[in-house]
Amino acid sequence: MYWTIKTGAGGAILTAAVLGFLIGLVVVSQTIYANTMENIEEYATLKALGASQAFVARIVLSQALICGMIGSVLGLLAVIPSINYAKSLIPWIHAPWWLPGAMVVPSLAMCSLASIVSVRSALTVEPGRVFRA
Amino acid sequence: MPKLFLGIEEASVSFGQGEARVRALRDVSLTFEKGTLSLLMGPSGSGKTTLLSMLGCLLSPDKGTVFVDGEAVNELSEAGRTLIRQKKISFVFQAFRLFHSLSALDNVALGFEIRDAAASGREEMARDLLLQFGLADKLNLEPNELSPGEKQRVAIARALAGNPPILLADEPTASLDAEAGKNICKILRRQVDDQGRTVVVVSHDPRWEKFADRTITLCDGRVEEQVGVL
Fold this sequence. Notes:
Number of strands of chain A: 0
Largest sheet of chain B: 6 strands, mixed
Largest interface: A-B, 17 and 28 residues
Shape of chain A: elongated
Distance between the termini of chain B: 16 Å
Structural class of chain A: mainly alpha
Largest sheet of chain A: none
Strand content of chain A: under 5%
Number of helices of chain B: 6
Helix content of chain A: over 70%
Oligomer: heterodimer
Distance between the termini of chain A: 63 Å
Strand order of the largest sheet of chain B: 6-7-8-3-9-10
């Protein structure tokens, strides 16, 4: 706590975390958007077949959350050994056992936020395009 | 006067503006009776697909009225038209438009999910439909592993999920060989004879004429000729 509040380390770590969140947001957003646009004809088909706006939004959001879950699992697989290794080198590092798992929540929130543009694209696609070649 | 089951009254549609304006349909009135198969023919640009889009609540006319199951639908909101499609109308496309990452079974099950998300036993119902179309050994194959004829049968099974009373088909045999095309003609005809569905087919394929109750020929956005009952 001393290092976090009384020194510049806390601010630096917080800034790094915010930057990581924003960069993650942009990268995930771009990935989901590219995936949505690649499959935009399928969203048009869904809408032509009578899928509601909520149904379409749920599909895009589910994809974003699945990406988030896979990313989180891969992240945890990398982070947990790293924390253990760091602790073995610097014993006074404080990293509670639940912290890596708790980071999954903001990661999924970030993925949900990142899917907003894609959800909008999927919702506004014109179902009438299903008859165009 | 009885309500129209499916049809359009004095409908006109234009695309583009100024000199580029194209009148796709010009004051067209047509009715489609319950339990019939109607064939829409005509040269490219004659308005067939525009008419099908209007009947399918995918396009509203600039002028005139579209009726689906007795209800004027062109003044409905987008959500209202979506609901009409969900409950009453389904489509079969020339390019099949199956979901490429899903198996045949999942494609059809998704059709059930769209129409009634709360329905239980979607997979069993989807399996039953695919069995009816002779696809028992293709249930778990993805669309790219199916022949064109099989893809179209899966697409028809998906269209029939949820039992919609109206089926609109755009060139459903154009991508198929002669045998597969004939099979699709028979399947859609059976939907009329056995299930009482109303089927409207847009096609250049003359084989459809002997399966249709009525053939409507469009030209330059107008009805040029109607042959058959009704």
